[in-house]
Amino acid sequence: MNKGILLSGGMDSISLAYWKRPEIAITIDYGQAAAETEIRTSSVIAKELGIEHHIIEIDCSSLGSGDLINSKAIKESPSSEWWPYRNQLLITLACMKGISLGIIELMIGSVKSDGFHKDGTSEFYARMNSLMEYQEGNIRISSPCIEMSTVELIQKSGIPKSLLHWAHSCHTSNEPCGKCRGCNKYGQTLNELYAE
């Protein structure tokens, strides 16, 4: 029986992978603009940590909205990067793959600031856990760092700078745009961690 992680290649998920060292990582190309770099980064991290890495490719871009597909956000969007029901979709896809890999727990790298969206809250993950445990497969959904900031997670994990700098946080491109919420978070986090 294995533990798995949804590995996006961002600061939070790679720090969680370094900290918890699950046996399996799953990265999903669901049609997001930065998929190529997210996969490349996740592959490097998984190889470095000796984690079995699986990639799912399924184009859901026609269902997306906002920065993650470089389009205008729909009117219901609470922010420019919001993609309707995205975390629910990603967890479902990862569990669909994970059941055949013997995964009994899927870890998600959400942190406290992700609570800006309902699908980044501890309540959401508790509901997803109940749903996935109820169904055949009985996969547990956990969010070990949901009460931490990104800085706290990085410090707790002990991830070295050399690996952390692989993180790709840009929402809009395979090259950091330097302007989106993801790039801003990346810069602010490094500044808080390492600024002299």
From TrEMBL:
The keyword Transferase appears for this protein: no
Protein name: 7-cyano-7-deazaguanine synthase
Catalytic activity: 7-carboxy-7-carbaguanine + NH4(+) + 2 ATP = 7-cyano-7-carbaguanine + 2 AMP + 2 diphosphate + 2 H(+)
Pfam families (alphabetical): QueC
Keywords linked to the UniProt accession: ATP-binding, Ligase, Metal-binding, Nucleotide-binding, Queuosine biosynthesis, Zinc
Top-rank taxon, per record: Bacteria
A GO molecular-function annotation: ligase activity
Record-linked Gene3D superfamilies: HUPs
Pathway linked to the protein: Purine metabolism; 7-cyano-7-deazaguanine biosynthesis
Family membership: Belongs to the QueC family.
Enzyme Commission number(s): 6.3.4.20
EC class name: ligase
Keyword match Metal-binding: yes
